[in-house]
Every structure is written in C-alpha cells, then in structure tokens.
Design brief:
351 residues; two-stranded antiparallel ribbon; 8% strand; globular; binds zinc ion
Length: 351
Amino acid sequence: MLVLLLAGCAGVGAWLAWPTSGPPPVDPPTGDETPVEPTTQYVPSNDPPSAPLSPLPLDETCEAAAPAGAAEANAAGLNTLAWAPFGRAETGWVIYAPRIGAELATACGPGTTRFAAALARWQAGHRLPQTGVLDQPTFDAMKTRWTLARPFAAINARGECPNAPALAGLSTAKADEAYGGKTIQLRPGALEAYRRMVEAAREDGVVTSRDPRVLTIFSAFRDPAADAARCARDNNCQGVTRTICSAHRTGLAMDVFIAAAPGHGPDSSADDNRRAMARSDVYRWMVRNAGRFGFVNYVFEPWHWEWTGEPPLPGVPISSLPQDGSQPLDQGAGTPQPGLKGLLPRKNEVR
Ligand SMILES: [Zn+2]
C-alpha cells in the first residue's frame, strides 16, 4: 500500500492502485457533492488559531443530533487513530482535519456533534455506514474524490503522462514570489491565478509581513528531461513517480511555503512537519479558498497545489517513458524506516 504515498507530484499511485480491468472507482454524484462555497469561515483545528479569524456563521452552532458517542470517538481518534491513510503508518488525523472539515462544509471542530452529524450525512451519501466517526474507509472514499478532482491524477489513472509545455511559453515569478531566490516558472494562467489568490490571502490576513515566506513558491515547472537525467544519475526515480511523470512537468503544479516545523524544510513529509502545516492559518485558509482560484491540493502534501484552469497537455503512455533509474515499487520507496520516527529517507519524499 505504498503506492498512494507516491501519488503527490505524479498521481501514478492512483493508477497503480486501481484495478486495470475497469475504470477507477468514482462515486456517483449525490446531493452533497456541490463544491464547498468559499466563505469567511475558518477550518476546524484542535488548536485555536493564532491570528484572529472570522467567527462562525450565525446559522452554525456546533451542536447537532449525531450518532451516540461519535463526537467523543472523533475527539479521541483525532490524536490516537492507528492507521495508514497513505500506506505509511500514522497516528491520528490532525493533518487531514482541515481538509475533512472543508469536505463536510463545517467549521466546527472534529470533536463536536455538528462535525459528527455532518460526517454521518456524508457517509450516507457515499454508501458507508453512518457512524459519524472518521475511519479509514470513510477517508479512502474522500481521498478518491480528492484525487479525481486533480486532472493530472485522473489522467495518470488512465496510465497516461501529459507532455510538458514549451519553455518559451512559461512565465517567471517575481523575486518576492519565489522562495529562497529560486527561479520559478509556471504557465501564465497559473501564475496569474496564484497572484490573485495571494492577494486574497493578504486581504484576509493570512499572508502578512510577519512571515514573508508564506505562500512563496519553492518549486513549480520542472523540465522532464532534466528530471529524468537526475533520476538516472542518482538512481532515484521512486518507482515511477517523481521523475518519470511528475505533475511538475505540466507547468500547472506548484509547491508553496505553508509552514515548517523546527528542523524541517517546507517540503518535508515528516508527520510533525505536516501537522505544523495543518495547524497553520494559511493551510486552513487554503483548503477553504484555493478552489476559488482553481487550485487543488494533494492532501498528503499540504504544500503541493495544482491549477485546474487549463487542462494538462495531451500525453503519452507512462509505460512508453524512459524507466532508467527507477526502482521496483516493493523495494524501499515509501516504506517507513524503524527508528526514524516517521521520517522517510529524503530520496523517498514526493515533491
Ligand atoms: Zn509538488
């Protein structure tokens, strides 16, 4: 089950995880599938926000009729659930609480009866037992929806890899939009949408002068030829994910600075680091608002966002791409290393 861990910048994991004899499992549309409307709500967290945010809407109280014991079970599971949502053992679901809250269209915290009631309704709409308790089958159903909301991942699910745009057609980010002085290139439409989003985040007070790194871009377009050369040189292709067919080849994907726990970079998938991101005001704002600007997130990586305003270019079968340097999927990549406290070897991180 390491394959879904690898889905971030490529989405290939989803393709590998689904049966090849039929289409990927897509839930039929139900009444509650309308996209979450952008609101001024904040997204639930087990921590109070550090900055003042808009209050709950007047019509939402956090008490509702929910399955007995569900709110208590969620409050406990939030920090104790032993599971492997992306193939790697994790404890609790603090990391995913903001996105789940957005999916449920509630700003009430995971330990409230409102949250449990909303979850039970969501489960009913997806033919799951209406326990009101977040468990792996429920999360897996959400994850499938989130994956298919990413055009790149949906294309990968068909075994195809989009082609890269011409370099001459890309736009370059300004210095203050790039993290650490990097040269950042995106398709023009994606960069313009990013700028509109950052402006909105600034107006809402989640991008401020307190930390100029917030929402700066640390990786965007990556040339497939250069990636492939590095992959072959370093023997570091992570199965078929990062280098053979990365979302970053499309010019539509970007990695933005959300937060970084002490000792971690902005792209470390260590759980401590991802928890710090989930607790940040900016991530909670992003899961609510980035969709307004056309961006979708790969939820394992709070920093990885893909713009959906233009389709990826037509592609080629992934199987036709050079496989030099790739490793068999059952050797190493994504496998938790005992004693590393959840840290993956850097070469296995998906960016
Ligand atoms: Zn990325």
